[in-house]
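Methods — Computational structure assignment.
A single polypeptide chain was analysed. Its primary sequence is given first, followed by the predicted tertiary structure written as structure tokens.
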Amino acid sequence: MSSNKIIVAGSMNMDMVVKTTHIPTPGETVLGGDFFMNPGGKGANQAVAIARLGGNVSFIGKIGNDIFGKQSSQLFDDEGVDTGGILSDDELPSGIALITVDQKGENSIVVAPGANGSLEPKDVEEAFQRYTDAMILLVQLEIPLRTVAHAIKIAKERGMTVILNPAPAAEIDSGLFELIDIITPNLNEAENLSGVKIVDLDTAKLACEKIREKGVRNVIITLGELGAGVLEEGEFFHVSSPKVETVDTTAAGDVFNGALAVAVAEGKSIRDAASFACIAASIAVTKMGAQSSIPYRNEVVLRMV
């Protein structure tokens, strides 16, 4: 395990997943197939990915005082994620996500944030006091934006590297961009941030450049099976992804971000870190579920040979 500590501030959910032939349209009822529950939440998924891939990770978040919250916290302990920054809310339930997965592996997700929505800036500030040696902050947008902003500001004051996964899509304060070292939107999020319709690598490059103009140092757009477009210090690269048979894309982006953070913590260039992350994400889509699909370090290393 790396000694370079990574803090993940984010959400913890219990995912309730149904497999079906196709994702229902409004007003349509579909008779589904298999059902299962799996711990999830973008923040939690990313933290577990970091732990399984060899990173030293601590989690800051909030759960409800209920069975789902207790299960999620226990699973973190089992995975080796430091849970000292997890708080409990006695009034709100733990977050849940309702997920439909079609026969092509594509998904549709609705999240009820519950206690995730009550993670306040003061909570993050108190938690940060436990982790004076951290070098990277990885954060997403499933917790309140004011809390995300406060976490980023604290991290930059400490000289940490900040990675923002801007998901789900939301309006980001323009003043935050200059505090972000790496931003990792998917195709849809990149289009929203840049105003560029992405149809090929040339338009992906243009979108990266438009996002960088906002003040972000480095931009990585995840492009699904096409890999990622990387703008590292102004130079654009395309990083390909291994060809695999997709079963379920749930948490693939989270695996990418967790793997990216691990590789950056280990001193890899952003381009090489994105390549490592693409391999990890390609393994995740071959399995069902969120955290159940997250690969271990040895699985990724085998694909790199």
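Note: The mean pLDDT is 94.
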